[in-house]
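Risk mitigation, structural track. In case the binding assays with glycine fail to produce interpretable data, a predicted complex structure has been prepared as a fallback.
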Amino acid sequence: MVTVTVNASKTYDIQIGAGLLINCGEKIKMLHHAKTVVVVTDDNVAKLHLSKVTQSLTSAGYQVLTYVIPHGEQSKSREQYFALLDFLAENRITRTDLLVALGGGVVGDLTGFVAATYLRGIDFVQMPTTVLAAVDSSVGGKTGIDIPAGKNLVGAFYQPILVICDTLTLNTLPESVYNDGCAEIIKYGCIADAELFEWLKSPIRPQIERVIARCVSIKRDIVNQDERDTGIRATLNFGHTIGHAIEKASHFSVTHGQAVAIGMVRIENAMQRLGLASQETFEAVRDLTAAYDLPVQTAFTADELYDTMTTDKKRSGDRLRFIIVKKIGSCEYLDVSVKELQGNEITLRTVLEEALK
Ligand code: GLY
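Fallback model:
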């Protein structure tokens, strides 16, 4: 087992290892003296992992309640949010009790937001069961739900008290879902860790524990400095600016991981064409991404993505910030103008046109 400690507004451990769920009750008992633990999960994960979690919690002396939501992004909704709050209230869950989020990003984000707001805040534990949740969404305290105007538009920064990442759960994922999470892993190598990038050229499954530990250590270092996402945390958005536009334009039929994969490769294509990154860097990002069976191109045109990007919540005034990688293992900001060409400025339209060539 590897442990990575986060020192944000809360200090907490991320434990990563094979078979950790079997003993999750004992681990939580060392930290928390709740009477009742409410385990929130989805219908897919419930079939695979819920009984071992509830057994371990019960053996540790907790009263255990379970709450199962339908799988998929549609559960990150106002309806599910209020239904879970009602469930907690009906069962007289108090502020000294505990929530557990057992599942992927949807379960983690919803449960985390309920934990942040129920009785003005109740502790929760993250137990990620997807690669994406293990390396990204379960760490760093971003919680929230979607509203019709957009994804994640309502939420809170609220850190868990513990993250237990049982790598055996990842073996139950379909290959495409596993690879989807690998897009975020490739992102960490690109922006912060050339050695991790090299590791990823070998099969990932046998080394998944050290890879996850490396990714969450990078995220930990960033979150420790900028928990509320006003500065350096934006570097975690490499590939996401074009990626989010593709997700939205496809009405989310392109998954998050696929969209980030395309976003990383396309922005590097643009940087190489604009003379800001080398051909070698672009090809390295493209080839590693393709090796994980992730897409590296999109059929959407610059016009189709342009409008979505100019309404991006990360836009500030007339500028939009891209994260770019000139050399694998480090990243920089590139601010572009969303107005038409003035002088030598790089505009969003130019970036998009070059990206999609
Ligand atoms: N997923 C990006 C972040 O946590 O900031």
